[in-house]
UniProtKB/TrEMBL annotation:
Keyword Membrane: yes
InterPro entries with a match to the protein in the record: CoA-transferase_III, CoA-Trfase_fam_III, CoA-Trfase_III_dom3_sf, CoA-Trfase_III_dom_1_sf
Name listed for the protein in its UniProt record: Alpha-methylacyl-CoA racemase isoform X1
Originating organism: Vespula maculifrons
SUPFAM superfamilies with a match to the protein in the record: CoA-transferase family III (CaiB/BaiF) (SSF89796)
Family designation: Belongs to the CoA-transferase III family.
Keywords tagged on the record: Membrane, Transmembrane, Transmembrane helix
Highest taxon of source: Eukaryota
Length: 393
């Protein structure tokens, strides 16, 4: 696998950090999750499959020493905490890089390491709202979140996909891999500073750079070409209360769309009468079921596709042939790793169990060279905890 031999320390946290660790693990990296001692995480980690767990009290001198010993033989640290948390425990980048000059120290935060919001709490919806777009023609500022939603309605967050996972975890994994690649030349590690605000802004590069294209963005939210302001880039309800997605932007695709709907462009001009044409399309799509529309549009270059729910996506013929998903023993639908590498593809860890908090504590301490007496003292003094079902002392 592409990342075989790479060793990662993932500090337990919410979704973005664990997702970053999952990406690395499913392409071959060995990932150890550092959990807190005590009652466990407040929320379950749904992407911890295939990782190992050590429960470590980093508020103790012994816990810090153990962590530093781990850092000396690992390649990557994923730090999901706010600015200064790791530094206060003397395990920030400056401390760790004195021990291991080759380590990649990835800091994944919402607002970054500096600025007035660096120490402020937030979630995906907050990070997305702070990414500003300048509407040149109207001279007012908008958050990237303002792009999502229908006309004359409040902005609608696209769940927590954009900032947490795309602008956060995915960008962090990219930064780590870039730093590992550069390390082959310099033999030195470096800090990877990932702000979910900045990562999501970078994902939106096309939106920022296209703001001067007046015909794309000269109207309020929900009234532009790509934000459901037109009839040819929109979603429609079907007879059986399901939905179809229409994205016939190019004229050649639009003409095929009209043909399949029994219309001609003279009746439904592409760039005129958007509201009237939308109402017409809505009435037509309600005359057939989703399956009937699929029979009409499948394999046709009209850019019309069914909107599938999570259950249906597993059974769609295209996804089945490509083995896009797999099903776990508890009937959970899991995407397989992407991108696909021809020689060293990723392998989904979803069929592996989620580790209990501290399940591998003793195993990891043994690998670090601690003897049985030392490990027993760590456990007795609650410097580390070991899941009882896995205890081998």
């Amino acid at each position: 696998m592409a990342l075989k031999g790479i060793k990662v320390i993932e500090m337990a946290g919410l979704a973005p950090g664990p997702f970053c660790g999952m990406l690395l693990a499913e392409f071959g990296a060995s990932v150890i999750r550092v959990d807190k001692v005590g009652n466990g995480q407040e929320y379950p980690d749904f992407v911890a499959h295939g990782k190992r767990s050590i429960a470590l009290d980093l508020k103790t001198e012994e816990g810090v020493d153990i962590f530093k010993k781990m850092c000396n033989c690992n390649d990557v640290i994923i730090d999901p905490f706010r600015k200064g948390v790791m530094d206060k425990m003397k395990i920030g980048p400056d401390d760790i890089m004195q021990i291991n000059k080759r380590i990649i120290y990835a800091r994944l935060t919402g607002f970054g390491q500096k600025g007035p919001y660096a120490n402020m709490a937030g979630h995906d919806i907050n990070f997305l709202s702070y990414i500003l777009l300048l509407q040149q023609m109207n001279c007012f500022h908008l958050g990237l979140l303002s792009l999502f939603g229908r006309a004359n309605e409040k902005p609608t967050p696209p769940v927590n996909l954009a900032a947490d996972f795309a602008g956060g975890g995915l960008i962090c994994a990219l930064g780590i891999i870039l730093a590992l690649l550069e390390r082959n030349r310099s033999n030195l590690g470096q800090v990877v500073d990932v702000s979910m605000v900045e990562g999501t802004a970078y994902l939106g590069s096309w939106f920022f750079r296209s703001q001067l294209m007046k015909f794309l963005w000269d109207k309020p939210r929900g009234q532009n070409i790509l934000d459901t302001g037109t009839h040819f880039y929109n979603t429609y309800e079907t007879k059986d209360k399901r939905y179809m997605a229409v994205g016939a932007i190019e004229s050649k695709f639009y003409n095929i769309l009209l043909e399949k709907l029994g219309l001609v462009e003279d009746e439904v001009p592409q760039y005129q009468n958007f509201d009237k044409n939308h109402a017409l399309f809505a009435d037509i799509f309600k005359t057939k079921t989703q399956a009937q529309w699929c029979a009409i549009f499948d394999g046709v270059d009209a850019c019309v596709t069914p909107i599938l729910n999570l259950k249906d996506t597993l059974h769609h013929p295209h996804n089945k042939e490509n083995e896009t998903f797999k099903v776990t023993e508890d009937n959970c639908v899991i995407p397989n790793p992407s991108p696909r590498l021809s020689r060293t593809p990723g392998i989904s860890m979803a069929t592996c169990k989620i580790p209990e908090q501290g399940e591998h504590s003793i195993e990891i301490l043994t690998e670090l060279g601690f003897n049985c007496q030392e490990i027993d003292n760590f456990v007795r003094n609650k410097v580390v905890t070991q899941a009882l079902s896995q205890c081998k002392l």
